[in-house]
Structures are given as C-alpha cells and as structure tokens.
Model the fold of this input.
Amino acid sequence: MKTINNTKIIGIDHGYGNMKTANCCFPTGVCAYDAEPLFTSDMLVCNDKYYLIGEGHKEFDPDKIKDEDYYILTLAAIAKKLKAKNPTEAHIVIAAGLPLTWTSGQKADFRAYLMQNAEVDFVYRKTGYHLYIDDVRIYLQGYFAIASFASTLKGVNLIADIGNGTMNMLYMIHVKPQQGKCSPRNSERINEPSPYGRSLCRKRSGS
Done:
C-alpha cells in the first residue's frame, strides 16, 4: 500500500479461489444473512446485512459484477489492508486487474462496479470504517508480475497466470502483449470439479 497526497493506493487481486493484497490472502467466499449469524469472527456488516467472509467457495463465472459478492470482498480486503496501519477512515484508490481477453470488454463495467459508492460505511470484525473511493484503476492481469523486467524479454514469451482452477495466458512478442494470440478458452474454467464442490452460500435469513 502506498500513500500519495493522503490517498492510499491498494492493489487487489479478485481471484476465483482467493482474494489477495500485498500482505493478505483469504478465500473468495461470502455468505449473506438478513440477521446476525451465530458465528461472527470474520463478519462484515454493510447496509443492514451481515456477511461472513471466506465462507463457501464462489463458482467460476467470467462476469464478476453480476452480484454483490466481489464488492463485499473488496471492502473486506481494504479493511484487512488498513488494519496494519490502523486507520478507519481513508481515501482509497483501488488497483485491480482483469485478464487480457476480458480487459477491453469489462474494464469500464468492473471499474463502475467497484466505484458504485463514492463513500461507504461498514463494520468489519467489530471495527467501523468510513471509506472514500476516489478512483479505480484496471490493469492487465499478470503483466505487472513481469513489468520490472519486461523490457528484457526478447522474442516470444508466454506468461501463465495459474489460479484456482483457471489459467490465463499472456503472449509477449518483442516486449509487447499480443491480444490476438490469446484465445478466450485460455480464460475459461478448467473442466475439473473443484475440491470444494458447489457453493451453497447465498442470501438467507439467520437462524
């Protein structure tokens, strides 16, 4: 996390298996409740709803904005990141990534999804947060793992981003990413059952 002009820049990897920042990693799962659930050790409360973070396992879907899950997980990721410095109110710029084959088609929608609230209040692990989401920057997923030495990659190179049952491949020819060399099937779910099975956690009332 970097701070520039009192604004904190936080990089978040919205994976299908895990959410990641520079210093934390947690399962990409969330269960929503209308009433406070029994177990609350990793609970986020927002807009009078209760969310258990890391519960269940989110199924693969190329459309990450079709429900509220990734938004809630983003708030949790920011809170985990801020915890190290202990601020509970902050101006935030989110840096997120999308695979090359999805970047042009989903960049604007994913940015709008993460910026749906310019200000947001929530409670995570019994600590209240007030965030100002100043901006969201969407970058080419995987590229920044090699950005510091990309200029040295002469000829043809293949960068493989292997996730939880997914694999995104980025072709580099003479230092330049090649969108035309990336087949959409490279970003699809590998056709094997997840060891976690199907997610059974959706919105339901607490008992």
Q: What stands out?
A: Residues 183-207 have pLDDT under 50 and may be disordered.
